Amino acid sequence: MVFSHRMAALAAVVVIPLGIAATSYALTDSPESPKVPPKVELESGSPSATPTSTASPTPTPTPSDEVVSRPPVSDDDDDDDGPGDDG
Fold first, then answer.
1. How much is the pTM?
2. d(Cα 63, Cα 77) in Å, to the nearest integer?
């Protein structure tokens, strides 16, 4: 009696995953191979590069007169536990 319970448990351990894998394989779709068009055409109305003219160069943006100072540098991160760390 004990032998049959062990065989049933072993069969369940083997058969159930195999059944799931077989069902999953049977239900998957096989993808079609990609179809490549015979000729690729670009749009004819695509924007082209504007010709450069020496008569009117594009103006460069002028920086503002306000000078902003850099924020003070501080070591507030507590996530590094390297040498020289007080924490």
1. 0.33
2. 34
| Burial annotation 45-57 (CB, 10 A radius, 16+ → b, else e) | eeeeeeeeeeeee
In the block, tokens 């065989």 appear at 7
Q: What is the pLDDT of residues 21-73, one digit of tens each?
A: 999 988 887 777 888 888 877 777 655 555 555 555 566 666 667 777 888 88
CA gap 23, 16 in Å, rounded:
11
